[in-house]
Design brief:
Elements lengths: L1 H31 L6 H4 L4 H7 L17 H6 L34 H5 L6 H5 L5 H15 L3 E2 L1 H5 L6 H9 L29 H4 L19 E2 L5 H8 L7
Parallel strand pairs: 1-2
Length: 246
Amino acid sequence: MSMHIGTIKMSLQLRPCFLLAALLVAGACFAQEIEYKGFRVCTKCHDAQGDAWRNTGHARAFDSLRPNAKADAKTKAKLDPARDYTQDKNCVGCHVTGFGAPGGYQVGMDADAAKSLAGVGCESCHGAGGKYRDVHGAGGDKLKTTFETTDRKVLVEAKQNFDYEKACSKCHLNYEGSKWPDARAPYSPFSPSIDPKYQFEFDKAVRAEGKVTGTHTHYKLRGVFKGDSLPPLRIELQKNAKEAEE
């Protein structure tokens, strides 16, 4: 009996330690999840890109989930065109920014906060900006005060995404029968078998600009960052980029 009581006492003494360890592990995992900030934060500095993005299909992606929007396309895909899909968790992920992630879009979230995340925004392609936005600010300040650039590797370490093809494929190639290896349910009903226009070719799509596309107009960046971690596509797009009006 005394041994049993002793065991209980030891268990009670150790439990806070186990609880603390569990909280530390959970905290460490949560800390690794970088928060989304929404396009309002990005466009404070990248205003030209923001203005161009607002005229793209990506900016209006959430609106297509509303009742009677894109009715013909929904009918072809065997969806109910009169239904409101803005609350459907199987649909919203490809029509908003950072769905279900820290700082990202949540079904039923505050309406004002949702405005900055509804639509396929900046961070859908460039990654959650919770850390790299500060790196951008520090790099810009450094260039202004010392005329020195910052190594681009700090952006990679802060989780800015440069794998645009993977970012696009998550939605555009996530249909049943897709050759994209990471395709998985819930699948998009908008596949090339429904309409050839859903045949997605990244190399063409990423170079297309304008209102009928998802890609914003590319403008010359100020050269705040330098380094080898720049993908060839970024070099090409910047070479042909326009000068933003002051």
